Amino acid sequence: MVIFKSPFKPVQIANEPFGDFILANLWKHAVENPEKKAIISAEDESISVTYSDLYIQSLSVASFLHQRHFGHGDIACLVLPNCYQWVPIFLGCSLQGGAVSGASVVFTDYELERQFIDSRSKIVFCSETSLDRVLKAAKNCPLINTIVIVESDPKHPIKDYPFGIHKFSDVLKTPPMRGVPAKDIDVNRDILLLPYSSGTTGSPKGVMISHRNFGTMINIINAHLQDYVQEVFKGTYKMYEETDILLLPFYHIYGFGVLMNVLCCGKTAVLLTHFDPDVFFRSIEKFKVKMLMLVPPILVALAKHPIAQKYNLSSLTICISGAAPAGKDLIDEVKRKHPSLKYIVQGYGMTECSMASHLPDFKEFKHGSCGRVGSLGEMKIIDVESGKELNVEERGEILLRSPTIMMGYLGRPQATAETIDDNGWLHTGDIGYVNKEGDLFIVERLKELIKVKGLQVPPAELEDLLLSHPQIRDAAVIGIADEDAGEVPKAYVVRATEDLTEKQVQEYVKQRVAHYKQLKGGVEFINEIPKSAAGKILRRFLRDKNAAAVPQLSKL
User: What angle do CA 302, 303, 307 make, to 5 degrees?
Assistant: First the structure.
């Protein structure tokens, strides 16, 4: 049996309610420095909260929830942009023995209704911009008994909300109280987080993450960054004195994990509600940010956005990328534009493993890899057809096993059984291989591989090549039907200059890849590549776009 085990030192498996763990950290940082800023708004720096504020607000939210009969096993849905209020809301729910399920603020009322019903949400916290859609969705969700609106400007709240809507500013006036006793929370079985899987390979499913799952994950992340970031900076990187940027969406497990790391370490975080290049680069310069945890589209911005050159980004030393592959050409271009960035490394993970399964060793990082199995984890590679376990350098499906693996999909035992086998192995649906040093290399999503006459073409390979073209700002590749080949690759390209032609793009690729990888499906120029909040290309939208165009073309 070929099982690849973690080379990193083991961390403690979480054995206490996660809310108690984070609350204790807030208290510790508040006592050490009562005025220490925890979170500052990047768009409006006058909006900020201290660790002391977050501690008190969390207890006030817990008290409010207690009054609303929200308790053990209940679910709260958060339809909010990135904002500091996520912290006290999450902790208040956790202290009451409940869980949170995040949803995008751009979801339609149909999407919200589906998540409200599936998650059995009892209370909703939403923004002003999403309130109308939340109200429309909630009409068909009898379990929802409370809706709280989080004002966009707490200093100047809007007064005229529909009858029965609670304002978060009023929630914070509730006298603080402690939640349910910790002994009443089963860290192994109680749901802490209920994020929904992206739906890129199926309908959205609620991922049940326990206190043990996520608490252990945060222990792994904290220990890894402490050990390896300190090594890079030779002991001069003091976590509690640093400033991080919070950019990734909190309703996504990656973004939420980064937020929790900030709170554990006592850092100050500059928070962006959405990606604005000017605000992003300005924040790096002003706060002298040294390390970024991001997704490949942000690397593309660092490499190609013209405004980046207007700012002094020389404090940047480390970028850790995740959620989607970042190619060598892109990484090399970022390093060329920003020579202070000595380390641009990648990790690997998914919602179902509570965030990350693989983490980088900065000093031994291999181009194209996404690191090695994280602490306490195991991995094996199996043949897709036979299920046979494979050895180093052999490509197959990646399987994971760890204390961080989800409990399962809410209300979907069959989908859970199809994903986690009887021996506890999570079948990721990703194709990859391991080298002799234990570094993992991702080839492609099993269901995204383009099959050209039976030969596999990974879209990510062609996308990496396209992004190396100086006149291409962004790109995505899908497979389209072809009578002779079965499928052929088609590229969707965002031009950096308007004079770039389809023929030039095809010729650029033709000169660099095998014949079966060439863009025989054509090139289509578009204004923007559709991506999820986590930065993953939403190929299904491009497939739909192509399918809609085919009948029209056939009539010409």
Answer: 60
